[in-house]
Amino acid sequence: MKLSKFSNITIYTFFIVLMIFLMILSAKVGAVKLTFDQIFQYASSVITGNYGKSDNTVYENLFLYIRLPRIFMCLIVGAVLSMSGSIMQSIFRNPIVEPGIVGTSAGASLGAAFIFVFGQMVFFARVDFLGSFLLPFTAFVFGLTATFIVYKFSNVMGKVNVTSMILAGMAVNAMAAGGTGFLSYMARDPQARSITFWNLGTFAASDWKSVMIVGIVAILCFIYNLRYAKDLNALQLGDEEASYLGINVERLKLKLIIVNTLMVSVATSMVGVIAFVGLIVPHILRLIKGSDNRYLMIGTIFLGGDIMLGADILSRTLAAPAEIPIGIITAFVGAPLFLFLLSRMKKQNRKGGVYA
């Protein structure tokens, strides 16, 4: 049976049903297990406003203040990274691009590490006042800088050279990793631990405040990006052909790169570097039903959340009661797929490198 025969609505419905199943499973598993009855009771109390009347408020607080924010953070971050990967692959017209490869995640992580170590020194007492907004803003500035460096170095005569892009991405990632390593060396023990967890990725620190910040930024960016789905389809024909259709190509690329860097940097500042999700999800969706960005961008929101939630469940259960950093889980799955894509491109063997 060909999956392409299913309508977009059918595919989205399947992803949503899978999401509900994974949300219930994620609420159940962990160092402390909850029963299905408890989950439905606590969820009902939140919906009806009867929270706090349970016989066991410890378990109820565990569900409401630890499990539930973590679930929503997984869904949002998965959607952000997946949509970003899809859009960047369309902009660069290359299937192996994702925020981790072009330096966005590493740059954002360096910005977060800078605030951990020097935030109090640079911003003095204002660091407490600026609080939750200072970290995402600094991560955005560093992530945007890293992305534009890679973009400029990979742009040869108006075309993105894939070989140059990968090499520039490696160089920028190495510089960002070096800077983060230097900050770890300079940091005190608690700061160094925070930086280490950031580099491996974790949802353990998720709370409702961080969910609100990432969620608001993500929703605004999703709405903005969805407006340009048709323009991204036109961009697949080539820059010149897209310009014939009345699209200001360079302006479109600039706007989407800035918006995508914003949402990826804010997400990274909250949960750390999580690689390969932005690479995997768009490819799965393309295998199911083509490359139309109108279908692809909405699909990444649902499937990206599903895959991130599934990875988080694995990270909490494989070595329970210990927790494996989620960046390790996604790397084990994503790295082989990345090598597979590179091998396919190698077969094309175009002289002078593969141009997007």
Quick recap:
The protein has helices spanning 8-28, 36-48, 57-92, 104-123, 126-130, 134-154, 162-186, 189-200, 208-226, 229-235, 239-244, 249-271, 277-289, 293-317, 326-348, and strands at 155-156, 159-160. With 356 residues, the protein is mainly α.
Q: What does the model show?
A:
A hairpin with a 2-residue loop joins strand 1 (155-156) and strand 2. It contains 15 helices and two strands. By secondary structure, it is an all-alpha fold. 42% of the residues are buried.
Q: How are the secondary structure elements laid out?
A:
Blueprint: H1 8-28, H2 36-48, H3 57-92, H4 104-123, H5 126-130, H6 134-154, E1 155-156, E2 159-160, H7 162-186, H8 189-200, H9 208-226, H10 229-235, H11 239-244, H12 249-271, H13 277-289, H14 293-317, H15 326-348
Antiparallel strand pairs: 1-2
Helix pairs in contact: 1-14, 2-3, 3-9, 3-12, 3-13, 3-14, 4-6, 4-7, 4-8, 4-12, 6-7, 6-12, 7-8, 9-12, 13-14
List descriptors.
356 residues; mainly alpha; two-stranded antiparallel ribbon; globular
Which class do the helix and strand fractions yield?
mainly alpha
Arrangement of strands in the largest sheet: 1-2
Number of helices: 15
N-to-C series of helices and strands: HHHHHHEEHHHHHHHHH
- Note the quaternary state here: single chain
The description of the largest β-sheet is: 2 strands, antiparallel
Tell me how many strands there are: 2
Low-confidence runs:
351-356
The first-to-last residue Cα distance is 32 Å
The overall pLDDT average reads: 82
Radius of gyration: 21 Å
Percent strand equals under 5%
* Shape by Cα distribution: globular
Proportion of helical residues: over 70%
